[in-house]
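During data preparation, a discrete fold description was generated, as reproduced here:
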Amino acid sequence: LRHIQQQRTKMMPYSRLYLEKAGNKEAAWAGHRRIYEACLRRDGQLAEEENISHLDQVFRGIVEARRGADI
């Protein structure tokens, strides 16, 4: 748990950059919803695919937001 908290702390400035861009917060929540719904259906394969898709979307958004930002 401590390791996870450390990683969250390190990522916080980048997450803020991502979430500040219009539409990204809603997109992130939609990704979380799709993961949650796959878990509710007990569809591990779909949950994995949705998780990978969500993380890819967020990572790309962070990279885009990071360009030109001073962190």
Remarks:
- DSSP finds three helices and no strands in the chain.
